[in-house]
Specification:
By secondary structure, this protein is an alpha/beta fold. It has helices at residues 16-22, 49-55, 58-61, 105-128, 136-156, 171-197, 213-225, 247-258, 299-303, 305-322, 330-333, 338-357, 362-380, 393-399, 404-422, 432-447, 449-457, 461-482, 502-513, 541-544, 559-564, 569-577, and strands at 39-42, 83-88, 235-240, 265-271, 293-296, 491-496, 517-523, 530-536, 553-557. The chain has a five-stranded parallel β-sheet with strand order 2-3-4-1-5. The two termini are 20 Å apart.
């Protein structure tokens, strides 16, 4: 039996050859990231940022040319176009509440010291794992770097290091010796100082070493660049999930961005849409394009949907090829429900004939059929609407809403489901019944158990309740519209006539951060400018019984009306559907979930 081609692995756990085989630049703007300059890469969890950083590490870059094309033979590390060093920001690791001194100047210095220690540890750990050529010249150069440069800048920072590295010491051991020194400094700071702050009512003086970015880390990195086994190109610090830094630490990172050191060191900073602070520790603001460039990954789905479809198709093709599947066309591997497709096509043909008989042009008749056939098919199912099938590659791509990780996750569950159904026999496709069963289950999990997990972890649980109400209100409204007689029934977005207040903005932002909503802009209905557009994540389509294939439909309303949903989603729906032709106000939101029945074998 073949392996699951959609099994998820953390990017850092994937060996470089597999990264090259599987990597697809999901967002078109990827090619603007590996160029000199500070860059913020913003996108929801699972949108491909960490995989991009994995591809940018040296062990992958030696396998490809500067255009990302695989080479027949690996090139030397000294020949790559930049040297990427991965620095993950793990939740709660750097964001220490202990380092708070009532906003006094020392708070910023201590936080920067703590960040520099941890960044330095990550940097030298990464360096220790790179396969540099371990000859005498390189050993001697690195030993001299330690003895003459590293030790000197530690001394300038207030730490005395007496260790001398022999010029015959292997490269890996020298890097590990540097790591040991940094760990000593970290331990001295955390155990010798931070522990004293616990329970203290007044700030406690700090008399230890102080490692700062401009005085220590940047200087060290510029010297590392000059080592003979390094490329004479910029070092890129690939800082992943920077939203996990505290507010003070984000301002410190912004201060590093403001230094504009991009010819030697560029900061590539990924965020999960929660960063939101672009001032430095001194109160000035970093701005694009002078200080940094910005890539918003989620824009690809709201503005370049066809490109996203092609990217996912390429990702799936690569996985099926790598795992030796006979069928490598994703549209065949994930077939739709043929009986359902046939009935919808018959309905389209009927509508086209009727419209042409009414004197409409072929294009007008086709547009009418495209707009109404799918929602009318759902509507005509009546009380059996839960039988509507979400199977088919195109449907699944739409449902993933621009988040590649979502597609990989539910495709993996579909593979496991088909494996169970096959009872040990080989299979070449994932059946429509398994796809439909698993995507409905996945959608339900997204709205129920996963949401409950987010709420449990949240600092403000009341806000999570309001977010749930907002989602229920939006999904419930769109559900009523799709089975109404409205002229546009495939509605998935809400456009605001005016600006939301602070509370509504906070809840919407929370929904965006957790991946339940996406945002964009659209021309307002007065033709005088842009309106804010908030899109329900299509992963919830099976949960609410919506058609995920269209971007055309959106509902304009005042922000005050949308705000009603935070407390009472049914009241919000009732306030709006009275003006929608044929919409039924039954005072409830029905969940469009499959029953607990097994697969249809």
């Amino acid at each position: 039996m073949k392996n699951n081609p959609f099994e998820f692995k953390y990017p850092d756990d994937i060996n470089p050859n597999d990264v090259i085989d599987l990597f697809v630049p999901v967002f078109g703007e990827y090619y603007s990231v590996p160029v000199s300059g500070h860059t913020f890469i913003n996108g929801a969890r699972g949108s491909g940022k960490s995989m991009m950083f994995r591809f940018m590490k040296p062990d992958c870059q030696v396998l490809v040319d500067n255009q990302g094309i695989r080479l027949n033979e690996p090139r030397e590390i000294s020949d790559i176009n930049y040297f990427g060093i991965y620095i993950p920001i793990k939740k709660g690791h750097l964001n220490k509440t202990d380092i708070q001194l009532n906003n006094k100047h020392g708070e910023a210095l201590l936080n920067e010291h703590f960040m520099v220690i941890n960044f330095s540890l990550s940097i030298f750990k990464e360096l220790s794992e790179v396969g540099f050529i371990d000859n005498y010249d390189n050993r001697r150069a690195l030993a001299n770097f330690h003895n003459l440069t590293f030790v000197k800048f530690l001394k300038y920072s207030g730490y005395i290091e007496n260790k001398i590295i022999d010029e015959n010491n292997p490269i890996k051991e020298t890097f590990e010796s540097i790591i040991d020194t940094l760990r000593d400094i970290s331990s001295e700071f955390q155990h010798g100082y931070l522990k004293k702050l616990i329970g203290a009512t007044e700030p406690i003086p700090y008399n230890g070493a102080l490692l700062l970015y401009s005085d220590f880390l940047f200087e060290i990195l510029t010297r590392i660049r000059k080592l003979p086994f390094m490329p004479t190109k910029p070092i890129y610090l690939l800082i992943d999930d920077a939203d996990e830094l505290s507010e003070t630490q984000r301002k410190i990172l912004n201060s590093w961005v403001s230094l504009r050191t991009t010819n030697e060191v560029s900061l590539k900073i990924s965020t999960q849409l929660k960063y939101k602070i672009f001032s430095t520790i001194n109160g000035s603001r970093i701005d694009t394009p002078h200080d940094y460039s910005e890539v918003n990954v989620n824009d690809i789905y709201t503005t370049k949907k066809d490109l996203y479809y092609k990217r996912v198709k390429e990702i799936v093709e690569k996985r099926l090829i790598k795992y030796d599947y006979k069928i490598t066309d994703p549209e065949i591997f994930f077939p739709g429900d043929e009986e359902q497709k046939k009935k919808i096509e018959e309905l389209k043909e009927k509508y086209i004939s009727e419209q042409i008989a009414l004197g409409k042009s072929d294009n007008q008749a086709y547009d009418y059929a495209y707009r109404y056939a799918e929602p009318d098919f759902i509507k005509n199912l009546g009380g059996n609407r839960y039988t509507y099938s979400y199977a088919g590659f195109k449907q699944l791509v739409n449902i993933s809403s621009g988040i590649v990780r979502e597609f990989i996750d539910f495709a993996s569950e579909m593979y496991v489901g088909e494996l169970s159904k096959a009872d040990g026999n080989e299979f070449d496709v994932i059946s429509a019944s398994v796809q439909d069963h698993e995507i409905k289950k996945y959608s339900r999990k997204k709205m129920e158990s996963e949401f409950d997990k987010f709420k449990k972890e949240a600092d403000n649980k009341a806000d999570m309740d309001k977010l749930r109400n907002l989602i229920m209100g939006m999904g419930g409204l769109f559900q009523k519209i799709i089975v109404s007689n409205a002229s546009e029934r495939r509605v998935f977005s809400i456009a605001l006539n005016d600006e939301p207040d602070q509370e509504l903005t906070r809840i919407i932002d929370l929904g965006i951060q957790h991946g339940y909503l996406q945002k964009s802009m659209i021309g307002n209905k007065y033709g005088t400018g842009k309106a804010r557009l908030y899109i329900l994540n299509r992963i919830l389509s099976p949960h609410f019984g919506l058609d995920p294939t269209s971007f055309a439909g959106y509902k304009f309303m005042d922000a005050s009306v949308l705000k009603i949903s935070l407390e009472n989603p049914n009241k919000f729906i009732s306030a709006l559907i009275k003006d929608i032709d044929g919409a039924v106000d039954d005072g409830q939101i029905s969940m469009f979930n499959e029953t607990n029945e097994s697969y249809v074998f």
